[in-house]
Amino acid sequence: MSRSARGRVLLSVTGFNPHRWHELLSAEREVVLEPDRADDPSIDYAVVWKQRPGVLSKLPNLKAIFSIGAGVDHIFLDADVPDVPIVRVVAENLTQYMTEYVVWRVLDHQRQGAAYRAQQPRKVWHEPPQPPATEIAVGIMGLGQLGRAAARALLALGFRVNGWTRTPRPMGGVTGFHGGDGLGPFLAATDILVVLLPLTPATAGIVDYGLLRGLRRDNALGGAFLVNAGRGKLQKEADILRALDDGTLKEASLDVFEEEPLPPSSPLWTHPRVFVTPHAAATSDPVHLVPPMLRQMARFERGESLENVVDRDAGY
Ligand code: GLV
Q: Which residues line the pocket of ligand 1, CB cutoff 6 A?
């Protein structure tokens, strides 16, 4: 089939330069950055990251929307998203990045990275207590593709792993908790909390002072830890700071923030027990993510069903 005979793709992105995405999608499809007109009938697919609001709503032949990120909350910032399937990106490369980030941060907290970084400039030779992984429980909120892969890696290192999900999601080796009733017991059994939830109206602001208060502090590490690599709006940063300052939390690793980029005025930047990365835990690399998108478009045109379709009611 010639490139022009295939469905056209609208690439609608704000906040970064989509040049590489354009180039790679263009290998198989005709790609435009704006429709020719609001009701452009030539557009079959949209590939989006925080698309321009309203740009999708009038396209009469739009068949599917592909998210550039694993999270899809950015799509719903637009109140006018047409009722066509939304496909989440699932790719080994993205999962691998996230697993690396989670393992890196968990090991750094367990192996007292912050304490050594504080000691070194003062030339202090001191070995803090070093509990092994087998004595530490990591609790993962969200056991989707990313949460499950992180759980497998942590289990392989010997950590005890708890999982909290909206509905039951059993996983071998992981102690499962779910729903509102399961949250308290999950937190009470967790030393290092890893947040990998999708952002939905039900999860916004869930990481607040009350939740952090529920974590186990009387443990081998002498405190509780937070790692958030999900979405910034899952957390209340004022509550995290309060929890760090009153001993509810010992340290935090944050990759995502209520406002991004994190404003220079945020005290998180300079807090000695906070590790900040710029929403870089699992970057969306078009070299790895465009091929599965193109494959899905081709499958769809052969009459096969789309994979990794978002449940609109659940919001992820
Ligand atoms: C990035 O945040 C993503 O959703 O993949």
A: 69-71, 282, 284
